[in-house]
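User: I'm putting together notes for a lab meeting next week and I want to include a structural view of one of the chains we've been expressing. I don't have a solved structure, so I'd like a prediction I can at least talk through. The sequence is below, exactly as it appears in our construct file.
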Amino acid sequence: MKSTVRYLALTGMVVLAACGDDGLTAGTLSAAEAEELAGAIFSQSFLSALTLNYDQPAQSPEGPQLATYTTTIETTASCPLGGLVAVDAFVDVAVDDQTGAGDVDFSVDLTHSGCVVQGQNGTEFSLTGNPGILFNFLMSTDGGENASFSGSITGAVDFGMVGVEKQGMCQISYDFSGTSSQQGFSFQASGSVCSNNVSQSFSID
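Assistant: Thanks for the context. Below is the predicted structure for the 205-residue chain, given as structure tokens.
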């Protein structure tokens, strides 16, 4: 599935370290390149989580009730531009069995294998888990199109910029929050990406 990540504002970017201590083996990402990579990883991770196929609670004949259950999911998905990502997810659900309103807590381990993703300016990155990405987030939904999200992305990947002689290892640790509506998804995120401090706001259509 290919999505378009449209950046609305970028603020508070400070380049921290040169390549000596961050594990990069052939070229350090600039702040702009790190933002492209972060947005691409976030979009792919978020959509991988939201498209997981987990059972919905059966409606109770006695009327609306709170349905609580947990499930685990292991699958392998294709990446937008080639390659694969292994998904190992734990999902904790507490929702109204009639409307679907409630909370869904996701903990998703993602291990990329030659997974090619694209940033908002068209830069393509090939990703391989080193060891991988942990994507945690809580979704609170009204059972329709409106929801709020909060969570974090941590871990590390080996990256290569497609068509560019720049590759290395990128460590990621940042928090995000966001909302969804009929107009799509909007998010705010801040943290450390490839030895850059990043604060950004973006949307996913």
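A couple of points you could mention at the meeting. The beta strands are 5-15, 66-78, 84-96, 102-118, 124-141, 147-161, 167-181, 184-193, 196-204. The longest strand covers residues 124-141.

User: Perfect, that's what I needed.
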